[in-house]
Amino acid sequence: MADKVALVLGFALFLFLHHSAAQTVHVVGDSTGWRIPPTADFYAKWATGKTFTVGDSLVFNFTTDRDDVTRVPKASFDMCSDDNEIGDSIEIGPATMRLTTAGEHYFISSEDTHCQQGQKLAINVTAAPAAPITPTPPSTKAPPPTSGRAPVTHVVGDATGWRIPQGGNMFYVNWATGKEFVVGDSLLFNFPAGDDVVRVTKRSFDLCSDDDDIGEDIDVSPARFFLNAPGEYYFISSEDRHCQQGQKLAINVTAAASGPMPPPSNARPPPPKPAPVTHVVGDAVGWTVPQGGAAFYTNWAAGKTFVVGDSLVFNFRPEVHDVERVTKRSFDICSDDDEIGDSIDSSPATIVLTAPGEHYYISTENQDCELGQKLAINVVATRSNAPATSIATSPSSGPSAGGPASNPGGSGSPFSSANTVAAALSATLFGLVLNFF
Questions:
Q1: How far is Cα 367 from Cα 289, in angstroms, rounded to an integer?
Q2: How many Å apart are CA 232 and CA 302, to the nearest integer?
């Protein structure tokens, strides 16, 4: 018992100390996910060429109640046995596993003969991140900094990265809105294997074509583009129909400023702008029909500050729940008639808060909203001196929601996103303790 508690506390401490470090989320098997693969060496080939570093995460996407994932030692991996498992097997997908130690890691499915048919993964985790491989065609040469401010690296899509976005073309338009791109800055594109990024002309951007590419396409992530001249820049993914589904970015780069006015001799430099915060909705519980009805998400939001530029991450079971932003009127009556944008039915769903004011979210599936799966927050313009604020809403007048056992067709508690933030640490620790006892 004491050993288990020590392991949980140690892991939680690691999360706290490393939450702000650069991390990579590896989606095991990419679009194939975690299942019996088409060939026995499928997952070995998937891992080939990838760099796994302490602090990274593996995301196993599988069908709950039909599969699981278990970490085992090498001997058990070779025999496809879970007798000497390391930690408990995880039976709720998607499952996120944080790589907390260097060395060889082995994972299998313990269901039936899945492992014997190739559902097994072996990786080697390094202690320190290797230097990123960044191809540098002529358009990516770093110019000398001439701006009055230090060059800024803009991580495209923030935690979402560079991929087919939820919500179509507006996702990257909203991401770029309000940002200042200056000569000397750079764009960093994080994307999974099998994707790419290419700079193109406006004509090719509008047509989603790479015929008029500017420089070569880059298919090794992370890819860095230096903004070395003022003007309009256009980027697309040339893979399949990714661009047509919204994986495209247009920005305007301004020339270097002449330099800021020197401050008075007795003035202090302004404090750095606070970094955006990622709020994992419901923390370890995720986005589901909650215990206690609508009061659960009201209590979750109480005391938090939501600022333009922050993100909400909704973790839920696809095909069981979804998330949609609506007007206050639709929120109050649990209706999606006045939706704002499309509903999102793929998890995890990341929504960037792009405007101040009241924001309302519901699940449109079945009676989820009436049972309490609804969230209201107030977004402020800046974090400086902003009060911790949320919208206090009364619990729904409908029946109180039970957990998965009392809600047929409901979901279990999904695992939170790999980009765990310090605000969710206590809830994450609670969830980890439950896994051990």
A1: 9
A2: 42
- Is beta strand 181-182 parallel, antiparallel or unpaired with respect to 120-126? unpaired
What sign for the dihedral angle of Cα 276, 278, 281, 283?
negative
In degrees rounded to 5, what are phi and psi of residue 331? -60, -45
Q: How distant is the alpha carbon of residue 276 from its chain centre?
A: 13
167 pLDDT exceeds 70? yes
pLDDT exceeds 70 at position 354: yes
Q: What is residue 264's predicted lDDT score, i.e. its pLDDT?
A: 45
Instruction: Judge: domain 278-419, CATH 3.40.50.720.
Output: no
CATH-assigned architecture of domain 138-254: Sandwich (2.60)
What class, spelled out in words, does domain 23-126 have in CATH? Answer: mainly beta
Q: Give the pairing of strands 324-326 and 349-352.
A: unpaired
Edge to edge, the sheet with strand 349-352 lists 278-280, 311-314, 349-352
How many Å apart are CA 292 and CA 296, to the nearest integer? 6
Closest to 197 measured CA to CA, from 257, 260, 126, 249:
249
Mean pLDDT, rounded, for 14-22: 42
- Does 138-254 match 23-126 at the fold level? yes
Global pTM exceeds 0.90: no
Report helix angle 425-436 to 2-18, nearest 10. 150
Q: What is the strand order of the sheet 103-108 is part of?
A: 52-53, 120-126, 103-108, 70-72
Contacts of 36 by beta carbon, 8 Å cutoff, 6+ apart: 109, 114, 117, 118, 119
- Rg over alpha carbons for the chain, rounded to the nearest Å, is 23
CA pair distance 21, 18, nearest whole angstrom: 5
Supply φ then ψ for residue 47, to 5 degrees: -80, -20
Assign residue 168 a region: left if phi > 0, alpha if psi is -120 to 50, beta otherwise?
left
Coil, strand or helix at 32: helix
- CB count in 10 Å sphere of residue 295: 16
Tell me if 430 sits within 8 A of 437, measured CB to CB: no
Q: Is the pLDDT of residue 109 over 60?
A: yes
Give the Cα separation of 208 and 247 in Å (integer). Answer: 10
Q: At 30, which amino acid appears?
A: D
Domain ranges of the chain: 23-126, 138-254, 278-419
